[in-house]
Design a protein that fits this description.
With 290 residues, the protein is an all-alpha fold. The chain has 12 helices and no strands. Helix 8 runs antiparallel to helix 10. The longest helix has 27 residues. The protein is globular and about 50 Å long. The C terminus is likely disordered.
């Protein structure tokens, strides 16, 4: 229950941060795309700094969630970040939540419940062998490089979707590294062993890289293009890490059918929610389309 609670808190913080960062990135000129000058433009905006504060809060909550539960349980819960954020935005801004948002919330909620019940993730161990990390990092690096190369050869929403998937892969890797690092706290070395582990510093590096890719994804296209790839990509790749690195188990066989239905429901819900004007952080006008 502790891992689920902190996973929900992480999702709320990340969802709100995504909307704030989207508003900030929309004001960045196209000439700053895939350049370090992108951060110079963003650092001048208070709304982006507020998003970063929420990202830090989410990182702390995520660390607690991963330290107390399987990655295949914790990460999929993050799919609720977008619907929860839009409902909260509607409440805070005192605007009527559109019907499409409620449809999207229902689809994501049912999809998550169906997926978790069908897959029944669990088991596994808390640490990863060094040799397994070598293979995982190599495969992940090649996959992300291919996505970035394809994105640079594309434009607008196609680029945004590809970079969103690359960011999702980076966030999933961050979660896997974080879980392995947090497991060091249970050893005899405690906090000293945690700070001596390479996984902790790799977590920070992967997180910064994922954040950079996400800013470029949000700058390249609409939230409709980015959010489904980010949400589903993070959940699915995290589950893959959980199974291959941590030995966690999922139901297979005929259970794959309801699991695929769950993925389809979540994808449809994310698309519907991303189209809402609330997703741009401005309930009075739709998200900018480039």
């Amino acid at each position: 229950m502790i891992s689920v609670l902190f996973a929900i808190l992480t999702a709320l913080s990340n969802g709100a941060a995504s909307v704030l960062q989207r508003r900030a990135a929309a004001n960045v000129p196209d000439s700053a795309a895939m350049r370090l000058s992108l951060f110079r433009h963003l650092l001048r905006q208070k709304v982006w700094l507020g998003g970063i504060a929420l990202v830090i809060t989410a990182a702390v909550c995520q660390a607690v969630a991963l330290a107390t539960g399987p990655i295949a349980v914790v990460q999929p819960i993050f799919v609720i970040e977008l619907p929860a954020t839009l409902l909260l935005a509607g409440f805070v801004m005192r605007v009527r939540v559109p019907r499409q948002v409620w449809y999207g919330v229902a689809a994501v909620t049912v999809g998550l419940a169906l997926g978790m019940a069908s897959a029944a993730p669990g088991g596994g161990h808390d640490t990863v062998r060094g040799a397994d990390w070598v293979v995982a990092l190599l495969v992940t690096g090649l996959f992300e490089a291919a996505l970035i190369v394809a994105a640079l050869a594309s434009r607008r929403n196609t680029r945004a979707a590809l970079l969103g998937l690359a960011a999702a892969c980076g966030y999933a890797l961050t979660a896997a590294l974080m879980k392995d690092a947090m497991a060091r706290l249970d050893g005899s070395g405690g906090v000293a062993q945690l700070f001596a582990s390479w996984q902790l510093y790799a977590t920070a590096a992967a997180g910064v890289g994922a954040l950079y890719l996400l800013q470029n994804a949000l700058q390249a296209g609409t939230l409709v293009a980015v959010q489904p790839m980010l949400t589903l990509g993070d959940a699915l790749i995290s589950i893959l890490y959980g199974v291959t690195l941590f030995g966690e188990t999922l139901r297979t066989g005929w259970w794959l059918l309801p699991e695929l239905v769950a993925v389809a429901l979540i994808a449809a819900g994310c698309l519907e929610l991303s189209r809402s004007p609330l997703a741009s952080g401005n309930p009075l006008s739709p998200a900018r389309v480039k």
